Amino acid sequence: MNTKVRIAGVELKNPVMVASGTFGSGEEYSEFVDLNQLGAVVTKGVANVPWPGNPTPRVAETYGGMMNAIGLQNPGIDVFIKRDIPFLKQFDTRIIVNVCGRSTEDYVEVVERLGDEPVDLLEINISCPNVKEGGIAFGQNPAMAEAITKAVKRVAKQPVIMKLSPNVTDITEMAKAVEAGGADAVSLINTLTGMKIDIHRQTFALANKTGGLSGPAVKPVAVRMVYQTANAIKLPIIGMGGIASAEDALEFILAGATGVSVGTANFYNPYTTKEVVDGIEAYMKQHQIENISDLIGIVK
Questions:
Q1: Taking Cα atoms as reference points, which of 204, 220, 269, 261 lies closest to residue 238?
Q2: pLDDT in tens, 242-276
Q3: According to the model, what pLDDT value does residue 119 have?
Q4: CB atoms within 10 A of CB 91
Q5: Among the four residues 94, 191, 209, 271, which has the most C-beta atoms within 10 Å?
Q6: Cβ atoms 261, 24 nearer than 8 A
Q7: How many CB atoms lie within 10 A of CB 234?
Q8: Where are the chain's structural domains?
């Protein structure tokens, strides 16, 4: 039984990885999960300089999920290269580095710094607010998404995955824009913008007012967007959004995803990724499927 998949020329032992920002850089979860069993570890967002993130409170539970407005707090590329890459290199798993920035120059600087590091793929988070364009996310304007993809691709030594924002009218327009910009793969979805109000304090539950909604509540939206994207572009897709079980992961694969990322579920069940890997294998046995690639996108 073959669970291997290829994303932009990089072979993963199975399609299961973690969603950026939900697993740190792997260290805090390594006592629960044998990282050798994952197809890849996707790191928390890394910027060119340390980011303090947003004021607290910045996490709130909601029905069927959670909201966060962490603000991509991270220690910056220097600490990441010195501390996190050596830790992850101990394991037999692929390393995908999530890159964030507030301007095109920020992204390019991080991608250049990672050029000679032993990492396998870069995931570019274009849901960051573009400071030069009045705060609109790079991933909400097709022309901007294409331009940032081109700029990153010019300097990248590793294959580039563009992480798409669902907070758009037409996800396929964004997918086609990054494909035109030269992306090697896409990942989706990032969080949906939401809001929660604390009726007792009569104020916002998050200091930032809005936050990104993730968890089971977003899964039907995510599956739909992965399906649409798979039928609009030729690039491999990493699907995510509310995956908490092998059944959830298989929905994304059948809709057209080559890889799947587990995010919010890691917070309440740190063993989720392993359960998803085992569950996919059990499904393949039950249905006598020899190669997982035979399942990708077969639901039309």
A1: 261
A2: 999 999 999 999 999 999 999 999 999 999 999 99
A3: 98
A4: 16
A5: 191
A6: no
A7: 6
A8: 5-53+71-193+212-295
Instruction: Establish whether the linkage from the previous residue to 15 is cis, with ω within 30° of 0.
Output: no
Query: By CB neighbour count within 10 A (0-12 exposed, 13-18 middle, 19+ buried), where does 135 fall?
Result: exposed
128 is catalytic: yes
Give CA 141 to chain center in angstroms.
19
Is 129 a residue whose pLDDT tops 90? no
pTM of the model: 0.97
Retrieve residue 143's tokens: 């022309």
Give the phi and the psi of residue 124 in degrees, each rounded to 5: -95, 115
Rounded CA-CA distance 242/237 in Å is 16
Give which of 190, 195, 181 is closest to 214, Cα–Cα.
Answer: 190
pLDDT digits over 79-113, tens only? Answer: 999 999 999 999 999 999 999 999 999 999 999 99
Phi, psi of 236 (to 5 degrees): -65, 150
Identify the burial level of 268 via C-beta atoms within 10 angstroms of its C-beta, where 0-12 means exposed, 13-18 middle and 19 or more buried.
exposed
Among 121, 128, 188, 238, the one annotated catalytic: 128
Whether the Cβ atoms of residue 146 and residue 137 lie closer than 8 Å to each other: no
Q: Which of 91, 88, 94, 87 is nearest to 122 (CA)?
A: 94
153 three-state secondary structure: helix
According to CATH, the topology of domain 5-53+71-193+212-295 is TIM Barrel (3.20.20)
| Sequence-distant (≥ 6) Cβ neighbours of residue 12 within 8 angstroms | 4, 5, 6, 39, 40, 94, 259
pLDDT at 202: 98
Give the residue among 17, 223, 44, 10 at the shortest CA–CA distance from 121.
Answer: 10
* 205, 62 Cβ separation under 8 angstroms: no
